[in-house]
Amino acid sequence: MEGFKAKQVKLTEFDVMNTLGTGSFGRVRLAKQKSTGEYVALKMLKKAEILRLKQVDHIISENTILSNINHPFLIKMIGFTQDDRFLYFVLEYVAGGELFTYLRNKGKLDNPEALFYAAQVVSMFEYLHNKNIVYRDLKPENILIGSDGYLKLTDFGFAKYCDSRTYTLCGTPEYLAPEILLNKGHGKPVDWWCLGILIYEMLAGIDPFNDEDPMAIYQKILKGKVKFPRNFDKNAKSLVKHLLVADLTKRYGNLKGGVNDIKTHRWFADMDWDALFHKKIPPTYKPVVKGKGDTSNYSSYPDSTELPKPIKPADDPFINW
């Protein structure tokens, strides 16, 4: 599959509407393309904050990766633009909200549903890793549910081209792999560790190394003892144990069989991977979406009136994009 090429757009092409989510560099807003009436998600990133937090490389990497990926379970970037205050990524709008919200509302998922979602994550990572992209930030907040009931992975701020090892500490405390904590250098296997955490969280309703205190979470991760609830599916338990392995020479996804060790595991015994890729498997849940611009599956946020300071063209690393 060829990469999906994003193009430079003009902000005046869009009517900017309500906020869908907020982050450390800005917010994501719903927008409507005036010429087509299509809805998009507009990711607005404050240039001054990116510079202050020394995140320029991450943002450039995010733009490059989003411009070069094309997969049914990965968010598509339609275009990008900028002004003196913000960078703007124009992304497809996914109306079903976050997996995080769905999971919190349901408490936990039943086995077939968790399996259906986990298989899509396997497919995402197989594609990204084949392109030497490590994602590094899997969590339910970064997984959106489309109106068709299938997933879309979003937020590529920590994703990186990496054919061997990288050393940046990044990710969410509960999902950090031991090799990131130990600063040993890490690569694609961190994504398979995160898959193990996600499967556990979907089936148990809580992550395996949870604690109020991040330092206690890190200690639990390094100890590596995972307790499973009594009703946890035994095949899922087997796969999670093969993924949450500190020793990289034993972690599934990183052995001689690569991703096939995961895809042929008995938990996925009945999965038709080709039918999944072509979205031919009926989803167990389809979000209620009342129309293309419906935002009812997202939390509501107060509008920001604060405008970040413009930065001087001489200080702007993005000016020649």
TrEMBL record:
GO MF: ATP binding; cAMP-dependent protein kinase activity
Residues of the Protein kinase domain: 14-268
Pfam families: Pkinase
Gene3D superfamilies: Phosphorylase Kinase, domain 1, Transferase(Phosphotransferase) domain 1
Biased segments, Polar residues type: 294-303
Alphabetical list of SUPFAM superfamilies matching this protein: Protein kinase-like (PK-like)
Keywords, comma-separated and alphabetical: ATP-binding, Kinase, Nucleotide-binding, Serine/threonine-protein kinase, Transferase
Residue numbers binding ATP: 43
Entry's Gene Ontology BP terms: anatomical structure morphogenesis
Cited InterPro entries: AGC-kinase_C (IPR000961), Kinase-like_dom_sf (IPR011009), Prot_kinase_dom (IPR000719), Protein_kinase_ATP_BS (IPR017441), Ser/Thr_kinase_AS (IPR008271)
Residues of the AGC-kinase C-terminal domain: 269-321
Residue ranges of the region described as Disordered: 291-321
CDD domains: STKc_PKA_like
GO CC aspect terms: cAMP-dependent protein kinase complex
Similarity comment: family membership: Belongs to the protein kinase superfamily.
Protein's recorded name: cAMP-dependent kinase catalytic subunit
Organism, scientific name: Tetrahymena thermophila (strain SB210)
